[in-house]
């Protein structure tokens, strides 16, 4: 059974507010905080109005509403039970103890601190520890907020105040007391923890990464899909480079991406495939009668003829046997495989047929003797007669 006032009737009802709220809590509170508290109190007393959105009703953002309830939680009037969605329980209004009151000068600081730690609230001992960061160790309020955010990043929202005090002491001893110095300290820490810094450490380079290097690393992990383990695994394979750089590493990773190799497991499979390709290239070299190991280019070209042009290994070996007696067997092999690829010759049977059937050659034109290409002078009959010698004369 669910019995309650209708929303229309509830609008005409009254919301009781303890006078202690007006006397002890409202005078020091921000007006926006008071509006949030009273509107939420009305919803507690009249569930039929609880569906109304506080932000829309009061013209406030979710962040402002959250900040208000963090403030009232610090005052002991509410308890935040969850963040998503924001869940708040109202507590009984009680006389605040003098020792728990927030000093006026730290009011804004504690509100900001409460927003950082929400939904967690600080007890008296923990609150005093936050004051000690300022009064004992000399940190600015902005520096303490940066310090707490830094500690939360390291340890989570349940970080102990003892740990926060330890870090505050370290910062104080190092002169990190202003908000600017604290933000720079945190930025330096994040830079040192960046994956690009780990790459530099792998190469024994003792310097922080540049902005461009970090951007390049972020592209590898975000756009190309490599994880940190894979990037470092590729670094370990760069022993053939005397001075490794991010540009060279980028080329290696881009090549792996083209081959759809993006993690360590796939790299292991690719290594096995590369070993098979190199072994096949050595076998081709042996068929060609070449001495020595095949270079990377030759291995890649043979892989291309096999995987992209679909020429079988048997057909490639047959072509190697055919080219073995040539003056430049490797060059002739690549030319023959290229011709087969253009003719879509893929199997060993097709290759044998192609070798048996010679290509039709165009008829060669008979060359003229260049000695006969002189200019000829026409001879008249008279000239011809003058050339006749009477051999009977003078006999």
Account of the 3D structure:
The chain has helices spanning 7-10, 19-25, 31-45, 54-58, 62-75, 107-117, 124-135, 141-155, 161-173, 179-193, 195-202, 211-223, 228-236, 246-258, 264-288, 296-307, 313-323, 329-342, 348-356, 381-386, and strands spanning 78-82, 87-90. The chain is mainly alpha-helical and 395 residues long. A two-stranded antiparallel sheet has the order 1-2. Helix 3 (31-45) packs across helix 5 and helix 15 packs parallel to helix 17. The protein is elongated, with a radius of gyration of 44 Å. The termini are far apart.
Chain-wise SSE layout:
Elements: H1 7-10, H2 19-25, H3 31-45, H4 54-58, H5 62-75, E1 78-82, E2 87-90, H6 107-117, H7 124-135, H8 141-155, H9 161-173, H10 179-193, H11 195-202, H12 211-223, H13 228-236, H14 246-258, H15 264-288, H16 296-307, H17 313-323, H18 329-342, H19 348-356, H20 381-386
Antiparallel strand pairs: 1-2
Helix pairs in contact: 3-5, 5-6, 6-8, 7-9, 8-9, 8-10, 11-13, 15-16, 15-17, 17-18, 17-19
């Amino acid at each position: 059974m669910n019995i309650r006032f209708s929303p229309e009737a509830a609008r005409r009802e009254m919301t009781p507010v303890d006078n202690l709220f007006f006397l002890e809590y409202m005078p020091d509170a921000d007006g926006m905080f008071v509006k949030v508290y009273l509107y939420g109190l009305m919803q507690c007393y009249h569930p039929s109005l609880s569906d109304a959105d506080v932000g829309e009703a009061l013209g406030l953002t979710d962040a402002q509403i959250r900040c208000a309830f963090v403030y009232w939680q610090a005052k002991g009037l509410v308890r935040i039970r969850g963040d998503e969605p924001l869940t708040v329980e109202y507590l009984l209004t009680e006389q605040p103890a003098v020792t728990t009151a927030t000093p006026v000068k730290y009011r804004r600081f504690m509100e900001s601190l409460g927003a950082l730690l929400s939904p967690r609230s600080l007890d008296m001992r923990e609150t005093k520890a936050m004051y000690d960061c300022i009064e004992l160790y000399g940190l600015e309020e902005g520096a303490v907020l940066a310090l707490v955010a830094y500690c939360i990043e390291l340890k989570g929202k349940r970080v102990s105040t003892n740990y926060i005090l330890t870090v505050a002491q370290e910062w104080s001893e190092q002169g990190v007391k202003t908000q600017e110095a604290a933000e720079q300290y945190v930025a330096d820490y994040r830079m040192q923890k960046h994956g690009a810094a780990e790459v530099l450490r792998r190469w024994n380079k003792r310097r922080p990464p540049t902005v461009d290097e970090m951007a390049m690393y972020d592209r590898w992990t975000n756009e190309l899909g490599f994880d940190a383990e894979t990037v470092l695994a590729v670094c370990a394979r760069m022993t053939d480079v005397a001075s490794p750089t991010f540009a060279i590493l980028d080329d290696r990773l881009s090549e792996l991406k083209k081959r759809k190799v993006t993690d360590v497991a796939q790299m292991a499979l690719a290594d096995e495939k590369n070993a098979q390709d190199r072994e096949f290239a050595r076998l081709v070299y042996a068929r060609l009668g070449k001495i020595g190991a095949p270079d990377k280019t030759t291995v890649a070209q043979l892989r291309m003829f096999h995987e992209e042009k679909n020429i079988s290994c048997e057909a490639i070996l047959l072509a190697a046997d055919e080219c073995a007696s040539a003056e430049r067997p490797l060059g002739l092999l690549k030319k023959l495989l290229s011709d087969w690829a253009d003719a879509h010759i893929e199997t060993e049977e097709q290759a044998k047929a192609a070798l048996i059937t010679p290509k039709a050659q165009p008829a060669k034109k008979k060359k003229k003797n260049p000695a006969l290409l002189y200019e000829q002078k026409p001879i008249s009959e008279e000239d011809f007669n003058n050339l006749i010698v009477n051999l009977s004369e003078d006999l």
